[in-house]
Amino acid sequence: PKGKGPQGKRITLKVAKNSVRVAFNGRRRLDLSKMGIATFPKCILELADVEELDLSRNMLKKIPNIIEKFQNLMWLDLHSNQIDELPAAIGTLRNLTYLNLCNNKLKGLPEELTLLRSLRILNLGLNSLETVPTTLGTLRELTELGLFDNALTIIPKSVKKLPKLEKLNVKRNPLPEFAEEEEPIDTVKRIESLYLVEKKDLCGSCLQTCQGERDELHKLEDMTPCPSNKPSFPSLVTPNSSARENQEEWRMK
């Protein structure tokens, strides 16, 4: 219904054309980040031949299937929106090497995401993902994968063993390997009771044992250097000699 939810800023074709930039790598980038957009602007279909598209930091909830028109896309940034699901058409963008979906509201991933076989960097951090499909392991070109700050309890082996994966961030997930470690076992042998007796009350063997242990303690004390209260400056022959020579010069300055 009208008036419900954020309306967002309306993007015209003129505004979109003025937002096209040439990136450092020579690709044309359509930068519509931080524009207050709440609905995917259909007018940008006129610019569907760009290689890079930045719609980050907006209020987008849905990405329509018309995203498939952007067949030249190699770089797609959708981070920091309110996207709760991806369209199946995302799998048609076969040239994508970079996809950033960080900081959205994704609870699941479409199976078609695994069709993006050219992907090298995929960021899915800061979402609400509870599972990751094992088929994500088919993205064999991935070098970086962000899964941090989700609700994952398991990472599939197929994902962990991706052949080119150099960076896998799974921090702040309820994974078993991040559970608090048990309190370490104290391996030091400790006594529960201590009895004090006079020397004259000890038998010969006990007296000999105590005397041996006391001698060992004295040896350790002799080996431990005592800290000197007096500071030592072995390399300083005449204290403050260089300062004394330059004293008048420093005063003048």
From TrEMBL:
Gene3D superfamilies to which the protein is assigned, alphabetical: Ribonuclease Inhibitor
Pfam families recorded: LRR_1, LRR_14
Composition bias, Polar residues: 226-244
Positions of the Disease resistance R13L4/SHOC-2-like LRR domain: 89-223
GO terms for cellular component: cytoplasm
Superkingdom classification of source: Eukaryota
Keywords: Leucine-rich repeat, Repeat
Keyword hit for Repeat: yes
Region (Disordered): 221-253
Keyword Repeat appears in the UniProt entry: yes
Annotated PANTHER family: LEUCINE-RICH REPEAT-CONTAINING PROTEIN 18-LIKE, PTHR48051
Stated name of the protein: LRC18 protein
Organism: Daphoenositta chrysoptera (varied sittella)
Gene that encodes the chain: Lrrc18
